[in-house]
Amino acid sequence: MSQSLPGFSPLPNHSDCRVVSGPALVAARLLELHSSLDEALLKDVNEHGFRARREATASHPPTAAGTYHWIGSVFALRSNLTLRDWTKQDLRNCPFIVSPDKAVAIAVMTGDSDTGLVAGRPTNQAQKGAVIRQAVANNRQSELFDGTLVSAELARSGEGTQLWILLYHAGVGEDGKEELRAELSFPSRFERKQIVGWRERIVLSAIRPDGETDVRHDVPTAPIDVPVERRTGTA
């Protein structure tokens, strides 16, 4: 299990985190979250990312496999969901995809070994910067997207766009075989460039890569977004 970060008190027992698992419950919850979301699409995203990570060889940098997996997953998620009328958004080097009703935004991140485990306490593996910190702190996203993505109905109701994270991990299952795990989860706490708390986790069923003997486990990479500079005034 993931440990608490140095210098911070131990994490709570996560009794306030709702965990949804099992095909029927996952399907129902994804449909409730948004009518265009389903487990098959999200698993296809992870599989596409995995196919991209296989392009890494021993001559590539050690982090290449994980980077390729992330890039491939972002591409697959945004390509598939734009066909369902979602909108691509890039905010200070952070790629998102936003639902047609502006209620849900999804970002893709590599997770640690607790990702996709019902009893896990996962976190993002690559450190994140100010954009994700702000999103997690608020998780009412009207100000995050500069107000441009908030519909009139949501604005009137006081609701904003919720940020969800598609977290994935390439690792080993309980039986010692390679597997790909993923979850779509709603972050609630961010400390020292990592998400350390979740309000809800929708755990997808694991994928076993057929015929693959070397998944190349995920290793940490550098931050993908950049610090946000404070504005000193307007012209």
Instruction: Give the helix level as a range of percent.
Output: 25-40%
Estimated radius of gyration:
17 Å
Overall morphology: globular
- Number of helical elements: 5
**End-to-end separation:** 50 Å
Explain this structure.
It is a single chain. The protein is an alpha/beta fold and about 240 residues long. It has one domain (about 20-205). Helix content is about 25%, strand content about 25%. The chain is built from 5 helices and 7 strands. A hairpin with a 2-residue loop joins β2 and β3 (about 95-100). The radius of gyration is 17 Å and the shape is globular. The chain starts with 17 loop residues before the first strand and ends in a 32-residue tail after the last strand.
Question: How is the topology of this model organized?
Answer:
Blueprint: E1 18-20, H1 23-33, H2 39-53, H3 64-82, E2 87-91, E3 94-98, E4 104-110, H4 130-138, H5 152-157, E5 162-172, E6 178-191, E7 194-203
Parallel strand pairs: 1-7, 4-5
Antiparallel strand pairs: 2-3, 3-4, 5-6, 6-7
